[in-house]
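Before drawing any conclusions, I needed to go through one protein's amino acid sequence and its backbone structure tokens, quoted below without any editing.
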Amino acid sequence: MMLQPDATYLAELSSLAAGPGISVCFVCAGNICRSPMAEAVARARSALFPGFSGRFESAGTGGWHEGSDADPRARAVLAKAGYSLVGHRARRYRDEWTEDLSLVVALDVENHRDLASLACLRRDPEKLVLLGSFSPDGLAGGKPLGVPDPYLGGADDFEAALRIVEEALTGLLDVLGGGARG
């Protein structure tokens, strides 16, 4: 169970993007706040990498909101920042998806722990990473950073979560895109 990728792992991730395309699933608790934000930011930011071929999607560890749109506050903060999230419907992560994914990115340590318990990710643990570990501040006091869940908060909490997602995705996309930004 890896929370903080080492240099060897980062080099392996970078080589994934050299293939026919990478598929990434961002996972939070209910798939209505943080993971849809990560999906929207990744789609927009990946356009900065010439020749980058990737598919980004999102899911939740729980099925409480299956079929629902993203939280209106998440949609508002994304729109305000210039990101588009069209056609999103919340869904629960399914273990059988793991085989077709290059990377499963947990938004916090609890989501990481829940995902690490799934059979396919126990067999293929290198596919599971914590988004915050790609932030320049990926560790705080030796503990991995997660993206705090803004669900019970207000607009400021959603804006703070988006800032953390943007910062960490810059690091992740630098690794996946080989640092060859256009």
In short: The chain is about 35% helix and 15% strand. Helices lie at 7-16, 34-46, 72-80, 109-116, 119-123, 155-176.
